[in-house]
Specification:
GO cellular component, one term: cytoplasm
CATH superfamily of one domain: Type I PLP-dependent aspartate aminotransferase-like (Major domain)
CATH architecture of one domain: 3-Layer(aba) Sandwich
Distance between the termini: 68 Å
EC number: 4.1.1.105
Protein name: L-tryptophan decarboxylase
Cofactor: pyridoxal 5'-phosphate
GO molecular function, one term: pyridoxal phosphate binding
Radius of gyration: 24 Å
Order of helices and strands: HHHHEHEHEHEHEEHEHHHEEHEEH
Helix content: 40-55%
Shape: globular
């Protein structure tokens, strides 16, 4: 059939890709016109699309028209300059270009031989990034450690937990699995709980240690030490601690040096989750937040959060790659080859859960090259200054309170109840969140700290400027005024 879209044809690709790039560019040009948070009801799309796939081809224009009319209303716009929820998930021109190259080549780089450049570029680029944030040399690929790109921080904590588990079981015997104990704070990401479930760690052996405002919600080394001593005394085996630099709720920073001394003296694997805040450490003035990382066994940051690298790109470094490989390696006959059998290369299939993997290092390589360190530092600093500006706006309105000290670009705040009526405070802030988000003009999220419902305002979208901060604050103030009138 003449004119049909072929599986692959260079000229058809050129024509259609130009249309797609134009469509995406127009989307970004008009992104401020969309409600930030999708306003559709559950199940909305079922009534708009056919109940079966088409038998005959349709035109790209028809598909894009349907996307515009039917899909976009159900999209929450993470790249909108008015997006202030959760944490950012950065896109950039360099990130797009890297994704385009990766998608164009479309290789599956599970071992060195499947595409040598994919493995070697990943090693080199993660060494670059490790040096930028001044990780110890033990984490570089030139020694016994090295870096690997995982999909998410959840995958990163899972693979290192499995490596730590198997390392200790090789020493104490496989039957001791029921005695292994994992430690974290009550601010640690829920990904650790899922990793424990997958890794067979008994739920009663997961120690979630309480934090409070006295430590700015950071994990207390004294509390950790007490818990470890108690577990050892009753015959359990402490083996893993997940510390966090920049917790999801409030960007709390666990004291790595103090925690690291305790883990080292007890033979416990220390993993540092810096998924969000790790990007800030490219700036010398924020690098001190990971002081003590030299005591860690593994370190993770998400380049796809705040480093202009399109999702997914989660950088994980380990000091002992052998521990990962021993836990995750398989060697079926169909994957054997001279380079791998001769231990001459890295095969990243043995550093992760799935076999297949994309050429993700391309986009990180392009971000580092097309922006350069100075511009990336300016990008981070600008967001932190914008968050500081929002914090000042909140502080100037006596109806509101900043709840925890701002460290990076997240501001935690709440609307104070009239007459100090704490009973209605949580409902008041819950209602404020709902009314603000239902306007479609901005999107913010929440957390709970010390039993209090807290609003989170995370600055980090690539297009956000000071005018967006001011407009967002105006929306929040307006909705708060309307709510307070009803009390």
């Amino acid at each position: 059939m003449e004119g049909r879209l072929k599986p692959m044809d260079a000229e058809q690709l050129r024509e259609n890709a130009h249309k797609m790039v134009d469509f995406i560019a127009d989307y970004y040009k008009n992104i401020e016109n969309f409600p930030v948070l999708s306003q559709v009801e559950p199940g909305y799309l079922r009534t708009l699309l056919p109940d079966s796939a088409p038998n005959h081809p349709e035109s790209l224009q028809d598909v894009l028209d349907d996307f515009q009319a039917k899909i976009l209303p159900g999209v929450t716009h993470w790249q909108s300059p008015d997006y202030f929820a959760y944490f950012p998930s950065n896109s950039s021109i360099a990130g797009f270009l890297g994704e385009m190259l990766s998608a164009g080549i479309n290789m599956v780089g599970f071992s060195w031989i499947t595409s040598p450049a994919a493995t070697e570029l990943e090693m080199i680029v993660l060494d670059w990034l490790a040096k930028v944030i001044k990780l110890p040399d033990d984490f570089l690929s030139t020694g016994q450690g090295g870096g690997v790109i995982q999909g998410t921080a959840s995958e990163a904590v899972l693979v290192v937990l499995l490596a730590a588990r198997d390392k200790v079981l090789r020493r104490v015997g496989k039957n001791a699995l029921g005695k292994l104990v994992v430690y974290s704070s009550d601010q640690t990401h829920s990904a650790l709980q899922k990793a424990c479930q997958i890794g067979g760690i008994h739920p009663e052996n997961c120690r979630v240690l309480k934090t409070d405002s006295s430590t700015e919600y950071a994990l207390s080394p004294e509390l950790l030490n007490e818990a470890i001593s108690h577990d050892i005394a009753i015959g359990l085996i402490p083996f893993f601690l997940c510390a966090t630099v920049g917790t999801t709720s409030s960007t709390a920073v666990d004291p790595l040096l103090g925690l690291g001394k305790i883990t080292k003296s007890n033979g416990i694997w220390l993993h540092v989750d810096a998924a969000y805040a790790g990007s800030a450490c490219i700036c010398p003035e924020f690098r001190h937040y990971i002081d003590g990382v030299e005591e860690a066994d593994s370190f993770n940051m998400n380049a796809h959060k705040w480093f202009l690298t399109n999702f997914d790109c989660s950088a994980l470094w380990v000091k002992d790659r052998g521990a990962l490989i021993q836990s995750l390696s398989t060697n079926p006959e169909f994957l054997k080859n001279k380079a791998s059998q001769g231990n001459m290369v890295v095969d990243y299939k043995d550093w992760q859960i799935p076999l297949g993997r994309r050429f993700r290092s391309l986009k990180l390589w392009m971000v580092l090259r097309l922006y350069g360190l100075e511009n990336l530092q300016s990008y981070i600093r600008n967001h932190i200054e914008l968050a500081k500006h929002f914090e000042e706006l909140v502080s100037q309105d006596p109806r509101f309170k900043v709840v925890t000290p701002r460290k990076f670009s997240l501001v935690c705040f709440r609307l104070l109840p009239p007459h100090s009526n704490e009973e209605c405070a949580n409902k008041l802030n819950h209602d404020l969140l709902d009314t603000v988000n239902s306007t479609g003009r901005i999107f913010i999220s929440h957390t709970v700290l010390s039993g209090n419902y807290i609003l989170r305002f995370a600055v980090g979208a690539p297009l956000t400027e000071e005018r967006h901060i001011n407009a967002a604050w105006k929306v929040i103030q307006e909705e708060a005024t309307a709510l307070l009138r009803t009390l």
